[in-house]
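quick one: magnesium ion bound model?
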Amino acid sequence: MKSKNKKETLLVALGGNALIRKGQEGTIEQQFENLKVPIRQIAKLSQKFKIIITHGNGPQVGSLLLQQESCDTTPKLPLEILVAQTQGQIGYMIESTLDSELMDLGIHAKPLVSLISYIVVDEKDPAFKTPTKPIGPVYTKEKAADLTFPVSKTAKGYRHVVVSPRPVTIVEKREIKKLINMDFIVICCGGGGIPVIREGRKFCGVDAVIDKDLASAKLAEEVGVDIFLMATDVYGVALNHGRSNEKFVSSMTLKEAAKYQKEGHFPAGSMGPKIEAAMQFIQNRGKRAMICSIEDIDKAVEGKAGTRIG
Ligand code: ADP
Ligand code: MG
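yep, here:
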């Protein structure tokens, strides 16, 4: 076997702040500028690891929804089409930033690709009954009362919520595996993947958004990832998050993670799915799961920042 195929596989799941930082308007210039921080580190890591990049799409898919709400002259597009649009949009931004960072490092021959990815969900998933996943901007209570779509109160304020079924299988898993074994950097499962159900031999899109951390854990399991890293806007995982007795945790065993989860330290919609994704990954024989800040991806891979689970 060629030595490059012996490299470990690293999956980096980029959180929303890789593109838009807290308090920013989210112009395209800001998004490109922000992306350089994680992508520069990933470009360096690609010399040592086979790399898969996944990413969220909450603010972007929310913006597309708002844009179509404000226009009555063209037909409305369902959510699955908007998710596909954000995969193209963000995939292009990551790919072009990565290309330029690789060039800056003098790496000219690294193949990269962003892949439109479908993820099968179960049409009987009880998650279809209740919208829980926040997308788009934050509204005031007054504005939220006038909106025509489902809205829920979140830690950040009132937000549009959509249904979020669990990922069952990644349709393009074989293709992704082949590409990383050929040393491609693969950008895939963007925005949690396009949710589809099977109707006979056909795939049909559904109006939902899959959590990108749970989608990434499923992908990691199906293609055999070694290190699964979720990069977000906090240094790592804390107990009593946001309270005066908050305490950062540098590593936790599966047992400890389950105990803290039961005690309610990890809310649904933010840290909850990350911990669940990390636990699933370790239970499925992944080597190491990390949750860290976008700034510390390289340090976390070396075990010098963030929180290790498992
Ligand atoms: P991403 O876009 O990266 O998925 P999320 O907002 O979904 O970001 O999740 C990260 C957020 O989780 C942090 O901004 C933090 O406020 C929140 N959070 C909730 N509980 C915890 C916890 N126990 N430890 C650390 N952060 C937490
Ligand atoms: Mg999230």
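Residues 8-125+165-303 form a domain with the Carbamate kinase fold (CATH 3.40.1160.10).
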